[in-house]
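TICKET: design request
STATUS: open
ATTACHED STRUCTURE:
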């Protein structure tokens, strides 16, 4: 079974708990990822930066703050994509911050128990992002990797935010809540969105009722992970302790 060509379907490579268990080795080539979607987010082999997929092209935002076109054979350990076909689009004509943007999306997509793919295009007076740094074996705990992310601030930048709002029940399999990545129009800046202020632009959402998960090596790469533990909760608690 595969979902190639299917709409209203979120395709995910591996599961979040594997990433939280420091399984950072890539398992699916980027060239194959595009068979499942034209919009998406993720990371790369050894956590080498943030993945942003816009209009069927994959971009890699590395810890030096620059944007690269990855080798098609570069592999991802975790990514989420869809064939983006918006169900609703609206215009933003007054400045809004990230929380106001999420509130507006929640109002338009009130059913929190399905996936919502998101694309926001506009002019941003402020954008703050972070980017994963490439790791070496033996891999450290994921929480340490996230704490060590490179952070960037941008002012007066135009670009596109893409990502997903995951339902609460996917915790451990996927990422519940919002996960958004940014790419500037000139394709020189980007990363995982931490905060922003959008002056004007458009928001579009695609409600996705299906989830398709590709387990790496037919699940063999998950061997040795205690999936009975709540790794997501442990990850959140560790991050909170570090603040």
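STATUS: resolved
RESOLUTION: sequence designed for all positions
ATTACHED SEQUENCE:
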């Amino acid at each position: 079974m595969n979902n190639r060509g299917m709409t209203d379907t979120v395709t995910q490579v591996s599961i979040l708990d594997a990433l939280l268990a420091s399984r950072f080795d890539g398992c699916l080539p980027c060239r194959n990822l595009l068979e499942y979607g034209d919009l998406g987010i993720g990371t790369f082999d050894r956590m080498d930066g943030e993945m942003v997929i816009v209009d069927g092209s994959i971009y890699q935002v590395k810890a030096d703050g620059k944007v690269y076109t990855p080798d098609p054979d570069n592999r991802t350990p975790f990514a989420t994509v869809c064939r983006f076909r918006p169900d609703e689009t609206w215009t933003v004509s007054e400045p809004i911050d990230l929380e106001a943007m999420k509130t507006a999306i929640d109002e338009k997509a009130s059913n929190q128990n399905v996936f919502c793919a998101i694309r926001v295009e506009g002019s941003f007076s402020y954008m703050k992002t972070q980017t994963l740094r490439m790791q070496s074996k033996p891999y450290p705990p994921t929480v340490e990797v996230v704490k060590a992310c490179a952070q960037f601030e941008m002012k007066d930048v135009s670009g596109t935010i893409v990502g997903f709002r995951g339902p609460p029940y996917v915790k451990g399999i996927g990422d519940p809540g919002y996960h958004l990545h940014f790419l500037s129009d000139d394709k020189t800046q980007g990363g995982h969105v931490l905060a922003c202020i959008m002056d004007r632009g458009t928001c579009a959402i695609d409600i996705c009722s299906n989830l398709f998960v590709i387990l790496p090596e037919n699940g063999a790469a998950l061997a040795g992970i205690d999936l009975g533990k709540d790794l997501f909760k442990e990850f959140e608690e560790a991050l909170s302790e570090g603040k």
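CLOSING REMARK: The chain has one domain: 9-241. Residues 159 and 234 are 34 Å apart (CA to CA).
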